[in-house]
Amino acid sequence: MAANLKQVVDQNLECPVCLSFFKEPKILTCSHTFCKGCLQSFLDFQPDEQKLSCPVCRKETVVTDGEVSRLQTNLTVRALVEDVQTQVQVCSNCDSEDKALAVVYCKDCGDYLCESCKKMHSKWAKFSGHSIVAASDVCTGKVTLRRKGQCQKHPSEDEECFCLDCNEYICFRCSVLEHTQGGHKVLEAAVYETEQKKNIDDLASKAKSKICDFDKYVAYVAEQRGRLQKVQEDLSRDIDVAYEETVRKLTERKGVLKSDVGQRIKKFDKLLENMEQKGCQQITRINAVCGLVENGLKIPLQKEALRTHKTLCQEMEQLLSRVDQNDQNPRRTAEEGEQLRFTPSQRTEGLEMGQLQGDSMWILHMESQLPIKNSMRGMAVSPGNTVDIGCWTGGIVTFSSDGILQEVVLNTLEMCALQFTTDGGYVIRDYGNNICLYTPHCCKKLRVKFETLSDEEGGLGDLTVDKDGNILSSYRTTKTIQVFEPSGGKPVREIQCEGFEPQQIFAMGSRDMVVVKSDGHTVRVLDGLSGATMDCITKEGVDAYPAVCKDDSILIAWVNYEQGLVSISQYTRELKHIQNVVTDFKITKPSRPWYYLQEFKTGEIAFCTPGKLFIFRETRD
């Protein structure tokens, strides 16, 4: 009985993550306790480093500045662990009352043995293959004992079965008397453990494959940085040649030019460095969670450890599904750096020496008054590379990428959102939240019905079409996004927007991600399946209006409505800054603070106010 009691005590002093005695135990707000190091590892692969989701119950604990050390220490557990680790273990085989101190533990017999009993044990042939470990290693938790649990209802019975519905080990009697009769699915414990091992092996295999991919990616990014280094060396050599030809008078000009080269190359190199670091961080995160998941192979998991391990496996699945590398970004960045050219000056006097060429700039290409004044409610770029503007008073206005007005259709149709199907047909949402489809060109309404929320139920919102042709409809009141197949009917799934309104939404062209304008000043990138916020960016004092580019980078127009100023910047899909496109562009303050941003397939940028369309175009110096 005492041995069973000690086993229960020891088991409850083990961390559910690492399955060893608690080391620096920290308690969460939900009252669950874990090792400080285990919590730090678990926090490292959480989307928000300021919040920690409990591996057992999933309740969140705020982690100030991401420092796990600031969490409250569980002083009681720490004291118990210290007492257990310092206690003296006596021989469990001696018959006398004054038992000798144990020096070893037999993992096969389950007995602590003193020096005399150890010698006797080693002489018996049937004990020759038994595994012997130091008793001190067992007491300090250095060696974890493999043990089979006893049923709490039937103490004489081993937990030989596992109930999938209750997620716990049970004895055979419990299986027959309770769980099977209740319709639960029960497996032999050995079968369940075999399946768990296979699942863990599969996850570990996926992790190794993903790490291999990122190893190649990091090497590829380094190669692109080498290309930039070569560009800098070539440019420096050309500058040196021109310097030698114009002698000492050009020393100051030479320094200016080299500094310019360094600054321009540094901009591209910094982008590649960030990509390289992100790749390395992903490798570290995958290794960390993989190590925690593989801990589940050590012993049959019990109680909180089972729930913790299930949570870890789910976290690893999500981590592996959302991390990926994009070879296009480093290649494109290096190619932009290669566009730099040094052109020697043809003048024989002065300190001109030459100029660096290759940087681009954005200029206003066209500004046009909308034919239907102060009525813009939505804007989308068609497969034919036109920009179509939907009007809440009725009509769709079409402009070419050169800013030429082409046509106005569906004059009587009032709308609050506009998008295109993959074949160029219109997807229109009216003020009753009804979604209608129209054919290209002739604009014939299709007989397809979508079971959307009414305006009273869901409130106003926006439309977008994802890479698979599905239609996404957002609702500001219910803070949800419904996903419909183009054939209509009920939504196939619903995305919950936790704590924010989806005001404008844009689906990425190659990934299951949705870019959302929320709360005025904030842009978020959501997982299109789970709705989890992957990244977000906020600027106080200005309103954000996003758009997704053809390469899945993100444009954001930051609008100061009161001052009538617009700045447009480009970001990666992780919302890392790439470049400033337009800075403090002055517009006439419209009567309604409502704007839309889009990128043409040919690269021009369209920005629309309720009454005007602006088209910006990139030029090279």
From TrEMBL:
PROSITE patterns: ZF_BBOX, ZF_RING_1, ZF_RING_2
Domain called RING-type: residue spans: 15-58
GO molecular function, one term: ubiquitin protein ligase activity
Disordered: annotated segments: 324-343
Domain B box-type: 86-135, 146-189
Keywords of the record: Metal-binding, Zinc, Zinc-finger
UniProt keyword annotation of Zinc present: yes
UniProt xrefs under SUPFAM superfamilies: 3-carboxy-cis,cis-mucoante lactonizing enzyme, B-box zinc-binding domain, RING/U-box
Gene Ontology cellular-component annotations: nucleoplasm
Basic and acidic residues bias (residue ranges): 329-339
PANTHER family from the UniProt entry: BONUS, ISOFORM C-RELATED (PTHR25462), MEIOTIC P26, ISOFORM F (PTHR25462:SF296)
Official protein name in the record: E3 ubiquitin-protein ligase TRIM56-like
